[in-house]
Structure formats: C-alpha cells, structure tokens
Amino acid sequence: MDALRRHGVRHIFGYPGGAILPIYDELHKAEARGWLKHILVRHEQGGTHAADAYARATGQVGVCFGTSGPGATNLVTGIATAHMDSVPLVVITGQVPRAAIGTDAFQETDIFGITLPIVKHSWVVRDPRDIGRIVAEAFLIAASGRPGPVLIDVPKDVGAELFDYVPVEPGSSMPAGFRLPPGPRADAIEAALQLIRQAQRPLLYVGGGAISSGAHAAVRELAERFQLPVTTTLMGKGAFDESDELAVGMLGMHGTAYANFAVTECDLLIAVGARFDDRVTGRLDGFAPRAQVIHIDIDAAEVGKTRLPDVPVVGDVREALDAMLAASAGEGADGRTQAWLDRIGQWKRQYPLVVPDPEGEIAPQEVVIALQELAPRAYFTTDVGQHQMWAAQFLHNAPRHWISSAGLGTMGFGMPAAMGVQTAFPDEQVICVAGDASILMNIQELGTLAQYQLAVKVVVLNNGWQGMVRQWQESFYEERYSASEMTGGMPDFEALATAFGVRGVTITERSRLREQLAEALAHPGPAFIDVKVRRNENCYPMVPPGASNAQMVGLPSHPELAIATTRLCRSCGSSTESAHHFCPSCGTKL
Fold first, then answer.
1. Measured over all CA atoms, what is the biggest interatomic distance in the chain, rounded to whole angstroms?
2. Which of 13, 120, 156, 500 is catalytic?
3. Cα separation of 438 and 458, whole Å?
4. Active site (annotated) includes residue 338
5. Lowest mean pLDDT: which of 25-34, 356-365, 390-399, 540-549?
6. Can you list the domains of the chain with their CATH numbers?
7. Which of 29, 106, 163, 589 is catalytic?
C-alpha cells in the first residue's frame, strides 16, 4: 500500500477473494489513513476495464486487484484489451501460498504463465522484501516506452509475512537489461522533412501513439505549418480537432469516404504513432499505393512490420515531432498542397457522412449527433459494434476524451470504462455509448455506479441485434442471421436500472429525443437511457473484407478511384462492380 501511494496511486479497482485477503486487510488500513480509495467492482473484468480507462483518461498508470484462480482468469480479457491498445496498467493478483504452487491447490491458476503473451512483464513475489522494488519496476515498465500492462502475482503467505520494509522511490530501481527507448535520430528527422518539403499530396495518419505521448499540440503545429490534411485512427481520435478544415476524420473500414480516398491518392503518408492495422489498411497492397511512407513510432518492432517505410523514425512521437518543428522553423507549405486540399474538400462535399431521413423510427446516428450537441466537452466511452463506429464518425473529441476498445474490440468495455473515467474526474460529464448486446456483457456494473453514485450516463442504441454481426450476415452471408438477434430474453432496461438504484429512461419517439436526452444528462446521479432505434440500420461507409480502402460500399462508386472488381449476382448471374448494393439487371440485393 505504501509503494502504491508513493507512485501516485489514488484509486484502485478490484474484487477481493481468499488469496488476496492479506492485501485487502492492509488496503482497509490504507483507506482509513486516507492514502487511496478502492472501488469495488462487481466482476474482475469490470475492474480491469475501469483501471484501463482511468489510465487512458488521465495519462497515469491504472491499478486493479483480483484474487487467485477464477478471479485472476476473469482479468485476462481486460489485460489483453490494455495490451492491444498500449495502455499502462498494473494488475496485482493473489496466489495460493508458495508451498502450494504447482499442486493444483484450491483456486490455483498459473496466471503468470497465462498472461505472458499479453503483458510487458510479470513477477511472482517469492520474498516480501522484494515488494517495494517490484512495484517500482512495475510502474516504470508499464509507463515507459510503448505503454502496456504488467502483472504482479503475490502468494497468500507472502502477503501475510512480517518483514523489514525498505521503501523504494519511483524510478530508483530498474530491472536488469532495462533500457529506455532512444531519442529519434537527427538524420531520420531531416530525411522525413525532405519528403514533406517535396510532397504535393501529403497526408498525416495519426494513431494512438500521439495520444499516449501527448503530441496533439505538435501534430496541430506540423499540420498547420505544412498544410497537411490529417486523418486519425480509432485510437487516435482526439489527437487533432476534427472540426478543423485540415481534418478528414477517421480512416479505415468505417472511416469517412474522403479519408479513404485521400489515403489512396496521397503521395506521402506520414504515420504518427500508428501501426497499419488491418481495420485501417483494408487490403494492404491497395493501402496508400502511390505514397512514400514516413513511419514515426516508439516501438521499433512496429516499424516495417506490415509496410516498409521510406523513412523510419524510431522514438517518442512528441520528441520526434518537436524535433521536426525545430528543424523546420520558419518554413511553410508555400501553397504546394492547396490543390490537394481543394480536392479533398470536393470529396467532403460529395461524400459526407449521411444521416437517414428523419422519418419513422429514431436513427442511431441522430442519437450520437444529439449527444455531441448536448455534451460537446464530455468524456465518451463506447462498447464495440455499430454504435462504436457511429460514435467514432460523428463525435468530435478532445485529447483523452475518447475511450474505446480498438485493437481487441472488447464487448462490455464501455460501462466499466466510464466508471474509471468518472472516478478520475468526478466533476466531469462522462457518457457511455453502448449497444443492447454489448451492455449485457458487464451489466452488473450498474451496482458499482449505484454504490459510489458515479454520475455516468449510459446511452444504449437499442436495435435488438448484435448490430455489426447482423450487418455482416446481411452483406456477406446471404442474410442468414445466425444467433445475432437479441430480442428474445432482452430485459426491460429501465426497470433493470431502477432495480440497481440507477435512474432508468426509455426513449421511443423522435419528437422527444433531445428533450429526454437533455433531461437525463442533467440528472445528478447515474442514469441508464435506453433509446429504441431502427432495427436494420447499417453503418456506412464500409470497406468490405479483402477490398482496398477505395472500394467502399454505402456510397456511390467513385469513377476516379474505385478499382474495377466485379461480383456475381446470385439470382440472375450477371456481374456488377463491387461498390453497388443491388444487381442492376434484376434488382436483387448483392
């Protein structure tokens, strides 16, 4: 408890159990001294997601506790989520006594071995005198370089043993062989600038590394200096103001049409803290096929992993961008990129994000747009699915105000994540955008919201489906909706929330949408808002699997960029371009 306090820990998310009881006994005393506060979650997975989002929102290391056996294995999904999204997390688990390890003792699981592929480092504490050193090393490793989760496994008898405690100050202990990442090389900075100075159609491609390093100001300055259009990944949202004229929004599978066209046509792609993941690139050989590439990343293993850059810049993103700005002081674009920006502007006008006609049932996009207008400065968390993509398309977020499971795509992430953010910032507006399927994955955390009166507002876009699964089944599996409908057994969410002691609201009428949303958002405590939306609304644009980013469906085919591929109609056998939704011969849905 003292080691955690020394590392600035103010909140811990966790759930007790037999093997970790000695630690929880000391936690009780630490809370009484006012050192820190523990948030009791209702499931260990909720604890990891809350600690994860706490870290994403604050930039500090998140901390969670769990006991041995099933308590530890319940943490695995959250650890993997943090690992995929490079989030600094210290996970502390209880373990059976040292003498019982390896005997299949009650609630014994080798969590050290289970989590090896999804942590930066892990320890089993064999001697209590090592605890101060191990905690110091854990925080250093979790937060340094490319951030990520670490695990400390503490056997029960180690937690109960008396010993002479020697405090270890933060940063004073480094593991053997540990090295901080080097700074970016000056020759790489100059080579990158040379490409930027020559480019006619450059594009800044900004990922989560820009958020982790706090590089948003440097991103803006570089973009403005050289008049570079900016696209962000799902993890990079907030690194650049999406209402700015240079912004082209998110790219990739459900990115804006103009971002995907821009990445297809650019002659220079400047990747900033991004890893060229498959949901961004689509078919890799069709991703930025005309472009030279600058790749800036702190993790050398990411550079050249899927796309070989012309100029690799290995180092902290903010350091690299600051060095580029210093080396190019007084320079500018000199109108070189204006024709390119005009072309992108034309795509923006031609292919905007579209909200369906305001007739019939509420469109899910309408709900997200209303939230943006009613709570423009809120922290937003999301679950995973169609609602996540609509939120990514229509919400404009400040840095660290967008909290979403990107790499692992973890359903059930949103509400416990909102708990973590609200714990960190009790006076800020925190909204979770969820789907009716995802929210049920960790619905028990309504109890945590109620116990601590965390004023999270959960907004469910309820279409009665696993929405993204249904969309894929409609588009690629000939409308065979296998195990994706959720109406059978769906709870009355308003009544369920009320049963937990959380205010419940149901919205069914468009005419009252904004009024009821505003009223619920103004409620001083937690609220659960169930919005009934159109059942079969699809999230567009969409890059089909195996297609390039220019081959989006959900918008008219683009004559300059659409690559000529054909699909056969299963009804009449005629062929048509892949961008079409319906067969032009017989009208059958493709």
1. 83
2. 156
3. 12
4. no
5. 356-365
6. 2-160 (3.40.50.970), 186-350 (3.40.50.1220), 364-532 (3.40.50.970), 556-590 (no CATH)
7. 106
Q: Does the annotation count 468 as an active-site position? A: yes
pLDDT of residue 588: 52
**Annotation marks residue 106 as catalytic:** yes
pLDDT at residue 563, rounded to an integer: 34
Contact 439, 466 (CB under 8 A): no
Give the model's pLDDT for residue 234.
98
Q: Mind listing the pLDDT tens digit for each residue in 259-280?
A: 999 999 999 999 999 999 999 9
Cβ pair 175, 141 in contact under 8 A:
yes
Residue 16 has pLDDT above 50, yes or no: yes
As a whole number of angstroms, the distance between CA 459 and CA 368 comes to: 9
Task: Report long-range pairs for 241-245 (Cβ below 8 Å, ≥24 apart).
Answer: 241/396, 242/396, 242/397, 243/396, 244/220, 245/341
What pLDDT is attached to residue 93?
Answer: 98
- 181 preceded by cis ω (within 30°)? no
- Residue 403 CB-density burial (10 A; 0-12 exposed, 13-18 middle, 19+ buried): buried
In angstroms, what is the C-alpha Rg of the chain? 25
Instruction: Specify the pLDDT at position 571.
Output: 58
Q: Which helix (DSSP H) or strand (DSSP E) does residue 577 occupy? A: strand 575-577
User: CB–CB of 268/292 below 8 Å?
Assistant: yes
The tens digit of pLDDT for each residue in 508-536 reads: 999 999 999 999 999 999 999 999 999 99
Question: What pLDDT, in 10s, does the model give residues 232-261?
Answer: 999 999 999 999 999 999 999 999 999 999
Mind listing the pLDDT tens digit for each residue in 540-563?
999 999 999 999 999 864 444 433
3-class SS of residue 56: helix
pLDDT greater than 70 at residue 453 = yes
Distance between CA 88 and CA 79 in Å, rounded?
A: 10
Q: Which residue has the tokens 């959900």?
A: 554
- What's the average model confidence in pLDDT over 177-183? 89
Catalytic site residue from 13, 44, 45, 365: 44
Are residues 7 and 135 in contact, defined by beta-carbon separation less than 8 angstroms? yes
Q: How far apart are CA 404 and CA 406, in angstroms?
A: 6
- Secondary structure element (H or E) that encloses residue 140, with its range: helix 131-143
DSSP string computed for 368-401: HHHHHHH-TT-EEEE-SSHHHHHHHHH----TT-
Measure the CA–CA gap between 159 and 139, rounded to whole angstroms: 19
Measure the CA–CA gap between 505 and 517, rounded to whole angstroms. 9
Q: Is the pLDDT of residue 578 over 90?
A: no
- Could you confirm whether 60 is annotated as catalytic? no
Instruction: For tokens 């929102």, name the residue.
Output: 57
Catalytic residue among 389, 411, 468, 542: 468
- Residue 508 CA to residue 516 CA, distance in Å, equals 10
Average pLDDT, stretch 92-117? 98
Catalytic residue among 31, 37, 107, 428: 107
Based on the residue annotation, tell me whether 156 is a catalytic residue of this protein.
Answer: yes
